[in-house]
Amino acid sequence: MRLFSVCVTVALFFLPMVVRASDPLPSWAEGPAKESILGFIQRVSAPGSPEEVPASERIAVFDNDGTLWSEQPMYVQAFFAFDRVRQLAPEHPEWREREPFASILRGDLATSLQGGEPALLEIIMATHAGLTTDEFDRVVSDWISEARHPVTKRRFTQMVYLPMLEILAHLRKSGFKTFIVSGGGIDFMRPWAEAVYGVPPEQVVGSSIRLAYQYRDGSPVIERLAEIDFIDDKVGKPVGIQQHIGRRPILAFGNSDGDYQMLEWTTAGSGPRLGVLIHHTDNEREQAYDRDSLVGRLDRALREAPVQGWAVIDMKRDWRQIYPASVQP
């Protein structure tokens, strides 16, 4: 499967150079942001430190879209869903006259999303349900191994943020467990998260649709139903953390108001804790956006970060490099 080649590429080009570097965060510019993160990790993980946290409690959580990889001009899973609409269209001739599908088939993605969340959920249900979990894993794996970003023309798996790969590697080296906690679909992320981020499927938390244990041709399968089970966004993120992890994190990274409650929940606990916001300020190497963006809107969390004591990472100032060297503009 082509996903294997993606795994090898990630392993060869990204992680080894991080592990070998004397500076665990070489793509970060020197300054308060880098110092605050490294200082926190050192304080909670160094043996004998007055603030040392037991390894079992060293839990770090990361939003995915806009925090670990690019989310502009729209979420990667939306691109997947739109491609699935095109793929399944021959089986649904009625879609050519029915929105939001008709606009997708005409190539008018903006109009297809004018229906907001209900329209997106209808697209997700039509394209993500009706398969077994094994079938869906294969569909996602095949797609992610080939799908490319519409602007950079790079594979989406190459649109990850090198500074965050370095953070993930350094945290694991420091005895942390790293979890993805995303509004994206849990079953969309699990097939590739370990290859791309080093995060195994059991450490991925996300939105989900209902599942059912059934039989096909006498064999047991788990089928994906066309019903929402859980939305892992905003107030749902702390709930998802409790349901899947069972421990309050001590470190949380996000980039939008959808991550506010996750950072709030993380930093409200006792003992040393840190919340971090990624602020997209670089319109040359990536894209600058915050309060007025339809994707990854950052307003309330940015305003309240100083009061909450959260670190704000200015992408333009604090990151020497955004993408791995092979995908730089």
Relevant terms:
329 residues; alpha/beta; Rossmann fold; 7-stranded mixed β-sheet; 14 helices; 7 strands; 40% helix; 16% strand; globular; HAD-like_sf; Haloacid dehalogenase-like hydrolase
How does this model look, in words?
The chain has 329 residues and is α/β, with parallel strands linked by helices. The protein has a domain at 2-73 and 155-208 and 230-327: HAD superfamily/HAD-like (Rossmann fold, 3-Layer(aba) Sandwich), CATH 3.40.50. The protein is 40% helix and 16% strand. It has a seven-stranded mixed beta sheet, with helices on both faces. Helix 10 (186-197) links the parallel strand 2 and strand 3. Helix 4 packs across helix 7 and helix 8 packs across helix 10. The radius of gyration is 20 Å and the shape is globular. The two termini are 28 Å apart. 42% of the residues are buried.
Name of the CATH homologous superfamily of the domain at 2-73 and 155-208 and 230-327: HAD superfamily/HAD-like
User: Count of DSSP helices?
Assistant: 14
What overall form do the CA principal axes indicate? Answer: globular
> What is the mean pLDDT?
93
Unreliable sequence segments: 4-13, 15-21
Topology-level CATH name of the domain at 2-73 and 155-208 and 230-327: Rossmann fold
Structural class of the secondary structure composition?
Answer: alpha/beta
SSE order, one letter for each helix or strand:
HHHEHHHHHHEHEEHEHEHEH
Strand content: 15-25%
Name of the top-level CATH class of the domain at 2-73 and 155-208 and 230-327: Alpha Beta
Distance between the termini: 28 Å
Strand order of the largest sheet: 4-3-2-1-5-6-7
- Percent of residues in helices comes to 40-55%
Q: Indicate the CATH architecture of the domain at 2-73 and 155-208 and 230-327.
A: 3-Layer(aba) Sandwich
Number of strands: 7
Largest beta-sheet details = 7 strands, mixed
